[in-house]
Amino acid sequence: MIVLLALLSAFVFGSGVVVQQRAAMEEPVELAARPGLILRLMRRPIWVVGLGADVVGFGLQAAALQKGSLVVVQPLITTSLLFALILASAWYREPISLGEWGAVVLVLAGLSVFLIVASPSEHSSAAGDLRGWLLCSAVVTLVACVAVAAGLSADGRARAALLGVSAGVADAFMAVLAKAFAGSFDHGVAAVFRSWTPYALVAAGAAAILLVTTAYQAGHPTVSLPIITVTDPLVGALIGITLFGERLALGGSRGPVVTLALLAMAGGLVALGRDKRLTAAIVEGPSRATVGGPT
After folding, report:
1. pTM confidence score
2. pLDDT digits (tens, 9 = 90+) for 55-109
3. Alpha-carbon distance 53 to 85, whole Å?
4. Domain for residue 291, yes or no?
5. Nearest Cα to 82, choosing from 96, 68, 69?
6. 278: in domain
């Protein structure tokens, strides 16, 4: 059930990516990282549809994380990029190229080997202590803020890359908070709203939406999209291991095999995120979707 919920979440997230990037790219650059960017986009139906997909996808992700571990759920969420490729291809009636299929195989093979060889703990609880939560929150905030500040002072690909890092970190922390929020239901619905988790989730969610939208708006989706997609599961899994005590089996020959699997998976995701035909279909629509790809 955990795997199914995570894959359903990835499918819905992939749907949201297809429409949100197109809307964000059309907004003026001076609105980057400002609340006014979200206010303008909220008046655009296509972006609201993408936001709705994010909300549904997040609900499914939270359901998977209620009992599931970050080291299992977050890598599965990265398949959202595969779903985005398939949906964009179907939407614009453009066939998937041989190179894209190769990237898909890399992602799926790397993910499968990781899940089999590393034997990640499938279940975990959001049982971090106060000191751990404060330290985690401080580190995440610092990394995200430094990346945003550096990104806003940069141009071109460097700007997209740095803003992509901040967005990926924010998305990962949202997953961590989603796990804590979903776990708080174990004590009853009333207890949820007496805890800190829903309020932290709302605040972090608003920040994450702004950072992700700003990363999309920066242009160069072949830079920002793969960085977000790779950073999110890596940071989420690292927090799961350090804060919640989740485990990976890395003894003996498992360690090198898992490393190769993760590199293959990351390579496939980067290849997909840098595919100009895919990003043209996602960001610019069918009139540019054939650039660099088959017709």
Report:
1. 0.80
2. 899 899 989 998 899 999 999 998 988 888 887 777 667 788 888 899 999 999 9
3. 16
4. no
5. 96
6. yes
Residues 6+ apart with CB under 8 A from 107: 78, 79, 81, 82, 264, 265, 268, 269, 272
In a domain, 44, yes or no: yes
Q: How many domains does the chain have?
A: 1
Range of the structural domain that residue 150 is part of: 2-283
What is the four-CA torsion angle of 233, 147, 275, 287, rounded to 10 degrees?
120
Whether 70 and 189 have beta carbons less than 8 Å apart is answered as: no
What is the Cα–Cα distance from 286 to 134, expressed in whole angstroms? Answer: 46
Which has more confidence, 106 or 24?
A: 106
The answer to whether position 85 is within a domain reads: yes
CA dist 33 and 88 (Å) reads 27
Cβ burial of 154 (10 Å; 0-12, 13-18, 19+) is: middle
As beta bridge partners, residue 123 has 68
The predicted pLDDT at position 48 comes to 81
pLDDT digits (tens, 9 = 90+) for 233-281: 999 999 999 999 899 999 988 999 999 999 999 999 888 877 765 565 5
In angstroms, rounded to a whole number, what is the distance separating the alpha carbons of residues 21 and 88? 12
